């Protein structure tokens, strides 16, 4: 004898089980998608932070080819191209990013940065001016400082450099730029102080070490700065100061420092050797 009620109950149970299975499958799918998204983001972050620039370009170019509408991949490609020194290739990518409805003010700042790298100052300034003044960030003030510098608006540049340095936990780069600005203005003492501050934040920044050597030489001080340096860096700084001394007319000092640079370098220092040969060939000062 059949039991219609029992059959109906069992049939209902089948539907419930099927619904539960479908719900579980959907949950699993969502979880997998979430993990994949996180993994993709982690890979993107890794490529941008530590990857070889050209490898990063290849990675993001493949991502863009797979999904040309994904804004994050386009941003990654643009940043990677800039890191690889391929500014001309990066510009159209940043332009596409900033033309997107979901573009941010930070995207426009990166476009302005790329215009500066391409020596297209008018476009950089127009792009920067299009970002509302209420958007205050390290990159905003860093770029404002660079543009003010290019127009020799020194007071504005100093204000923007100082503001930018206060808005980041890693101010070495902007302090180095500020110091170089001071050096080109003929204020080597102020420049040396800023390079020293940059090295306090990043003791391995060779550019700041080299710039500090230039600042000291500009003051007639040919002793190496008291900073951490490798044997090769020491030789390179001696070479930098030697060339600066020669340009100032301190030829004997330059000759001595070139010889010391050649002796100090752990390998053959061809650039210093050529400079010394040229100096010797030109007569003694």
From TrEMBL:
Residues 1-18 form the signal peptide. It comes from the Bacteria. Keywords: Signal. It holds the Pfam family TPR_16. This is Tetratricopeptide repeat protein.
């Amino acid at each position: 004898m059949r039991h219609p009620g029992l059959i109906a109950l069992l049939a209902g149970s089948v539907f419930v089980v099927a619904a539960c299975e479908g719900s579980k499958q959907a949950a699993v799918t969502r979880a997998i998608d979430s993990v994949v998204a996180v993994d993709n983001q982690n890979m993107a972050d890794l490529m941008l932070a530590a990857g070889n620039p050209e490898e990063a370009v290849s990675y993001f170019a493949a991502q863009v080819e797979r999904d040309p509408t994904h804004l994050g991949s386009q941003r990654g490609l643009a940043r990677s191209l800039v890191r690889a020194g391929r500014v001309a290739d990066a510009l159209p990518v940043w332009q596409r990013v900033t033309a997107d409805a979901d573009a941010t003010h930070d995207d426009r700042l990166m476009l302005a940065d790329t215009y500066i790298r391409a020596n297209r100052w008018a476009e950089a300034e127009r792009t920067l001016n299009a970002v509302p003044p209420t958007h205050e960030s390290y990159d905003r003030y860093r770029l404002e400082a660079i543009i003010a510098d290019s127009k020799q608006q020194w007071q504005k540049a100093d204000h923007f450099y100082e503001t930018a340095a206060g808005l980041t936990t890693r101010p070495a780069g902007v302090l180095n730029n500020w110091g170089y600005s001071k050096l080109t203005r003929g204020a080597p003492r102020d420049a040396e102080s800023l390079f020293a501050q940059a090295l306090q934040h990043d003791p391995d920044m060779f550019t700041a070490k080299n710039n500090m050597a230039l600042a000291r030489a500009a003051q007639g001080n040919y002793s190496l700065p008291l900073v951490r340096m490798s044997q090769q860096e020491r030789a390179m700084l001696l070479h930098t100061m030697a060339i600066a001394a020669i340009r100032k007319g301190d030829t004997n000092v330059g000759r001595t420092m070139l010889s010391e640079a050649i002796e100090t370098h752990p390998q053959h220092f061809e650039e210093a050797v050529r400079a010394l040969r040229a100096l010797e060939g030109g007569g003694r000062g």
